[in-house]
Amino acid sequence: MSITLNVSGKIFKVSRDVLCRSELFNGMLADCEIDNEIVISRSAKLFEHIYAYLVDDKYPYPQKYHSELDYYLIPYEFDSLYNANKEIKADISQLMKNQCNVMQEIMVLTLTRETEHRKCMHDNCDMEPYEGHLLCWRHHEQCCYSDNCYNTCDKRIKVNQAYCDKHVLHYFKV
């Protein structure tokens, strides 16, 4: 059902359902039918942003006008509304984690197919690895990373891995 709003002289035909997402309009329209238009003495320009946000809460609502959200009693979380980087950072973090997992899988498949490893992947270890694994019993949960200065990584890894997530790319650079 459509409702006619007159916001400072500008006429808006809006959906009642969308409008009722605002607590102000929800309370106003709860128990009555509106035959004529509703007149509001607020900025029509800002109401366009308000309505867009009511339609889609992912709408990039202008921060400098957040007081209008308060006026119309529209609930919002300030941090999630204005900190788009938070979501982007979370997405990037997840993508990096996925990339590490894929790299680990590629490494395991590549090494297993290429050589059916007869030697532990850990530097200076000549022991045979567990069957189907890349490391021997002595190194089976240790990251294989070491630099030219004999610095090693002390992170624990899963049984079917040779490098921790931080160092998995080291294998591909070697």
Automatic annotation (TrEMBL):
Residue ranges occupied by any BTB domain in the UniProt entry: 1-63
Gene Ontology annotations of biological process type: protein homooligomerization
InterPro entries: BTB/POZ_dom (IPR000210), SKP1/BTB/POZ_sf (IPR011333), T1-type_BTB (IPR003131)
Protein name: BTB domain-containing protein
Organism: viral metagenome
